[in-house]
Design brief:
The chain has 356 residues and is α/β, with parallel strands linked by helices. The protein has twelve helices and 13 strands.
Length: 356
């Protein structure tokens, strides 16, 4: 009863409840604005999967109880690389500026609530500073490096890769906009353990009361960018972000397992071993259009820490009543499969308080 009552607000949190003990709702492509109708004709079924528009980030955090966000990031070191989107969808003078851009697919699906990553980070930081003690916000940054094949030979070349310089710049931007004292970092979680992966199974994740009001970033990227980010620092030493690294490797702590039905047992096993896990309640609007809650319910009962959705509110323009939220409302609940505490797990070390 206590947990159910507390779940209607962010905190305070019960003593001993850790970051990997809870479940929150996240939005998939949290910045996304649906493309114009012309694309649905040209790109047929592919574009039908893009027919959703999310509220601004602050609205998601304020009114929709969202505590996990996903931002697709494109490298644009000189600026202007994406300034001519098809049909003008997502056109903005901000595209001329150098820096990281936030949108889905170059040219064909560039509609976004925040063109520049720096502006998205500022929005998150602003909300966080105004809501002391909130559940940590988990931000997954998907680094886009692939090209795109469209109909009739339409081809979008790969964007510039995330090399060492770009990844260092990404870390610096996160620290600048969010503030180092507000981040949950690999170093903070690793503590005195030899590797991050060892730490999550022995020392454990921090208690929620210790990391309330903070933000945690996870890089979802290809093997090359991941190797570059972890080069010389296999547990993410000195880095601002966690990485979706292969299970069992030194830097592995947070994993993306998007099939809550076919990989239900794997999700439970990973959580038992101390990993944090993100899964998806729906994909490509299939479940939304069909009003089918099967995958959503499997995601929620899987216990995954983050359940990502395209429909935190009903998509009325699709004639659908489907919606994904926590069963009792609120921004968090104890995960149905929170790991049992083994005797070997030590109490977490004291952490510096977040500055108001």
């Amino acid at each position: 009863m206590l947990l159910a009552a507390l779940a209607m607000g962010d905190g305070p949190f019960p003593a001993g409840l850790r970051l990997n003990d809870i479940q929150v709702i996240g939005t998939h492509n949290s910045y996304h604005v649906a493309p114009p109708a012309g694309l649905y004709t040209i790109f047929a079924e592919r574009a039908r999967a893009w027919q959703y528009t999310h509220a601004p980030l602050r609205t998601q955090l304020d009114d929709q109880n969202i505590r996990a966000l996903e931002l697709d990031v494109h490298h644009d070191p000189d600026g202007g690389l994406y300034r001519h989107p098809l049909f003008g969808h997502g056109s903005s003078s901000l595209l001329r500026q150098p820096g990281f851009k936030v949108f889905h697919v170059p040219s064909v699906d560039q509609g976004t609530r925040c063109v520049l990553l720096q502006d998205a980070l500022s929005q998150i930081a602003g909300w966080s500073s105004g809501h002391a003690g909130h559940v940590p916000i988990l931000v997954q940054l998907e680094l886009k490096e692939s090209g795109y094949d469209g109909p009739a030979g339409y081809r979008i070349d790969p964007p510039p890769p995330f090399d060492a310089k770009a990844l260092d710049a990404l870390d610096a931007l996160i620290r600048d906009r969010i503030g180092s004292d507000r981040l949950i970092t690999p170093d903070l979680v690793r503590g005195d353990a030899s590797t991050l992966n060892e730490a999550i199974g022995t020392l454990g994740w921090p208690e929620l009361n210790q990391v309330a009001g903070r933000v945690m970033f996870i890089l979802e990227c290809g093997a090359r960018a991941r190797a570059t980010y972890l080069d010389g620092r296999p547990s993410g030493q000195g880095r601002a972000c966690f990485v979706n690294a292969p299970e069992g490797t030194p830097g592995s702590a947070y994993l993306v397992v998007n099939d809550p039905i076919g990989q239900r047992d794997r999700i439970k096993d990973l959580m038992r071993r101390g990993y944090m896990v993100r899964t998806r309640a729906d994909a490509d609007l299939r479940e939304v259009r069909a009003n089918d809650p099967t995958r959503r319910d499997a995601a929620l009962t899987s216990g995954a820490n983050v359940v990502s959705t395209d429909a935190p509110v009903p998509c009325s323009d699709l004639g659908s009543a489907y919606v994904c939220g926590l069963p009792d409302g609120g921004p968090w609940r104890r995960s149905p499969h929170a790991p049992q505490r083994a005797a070997k797990v030590q109490p977490p070390a004291a952490l510096p308080a977040v500055k108001p």
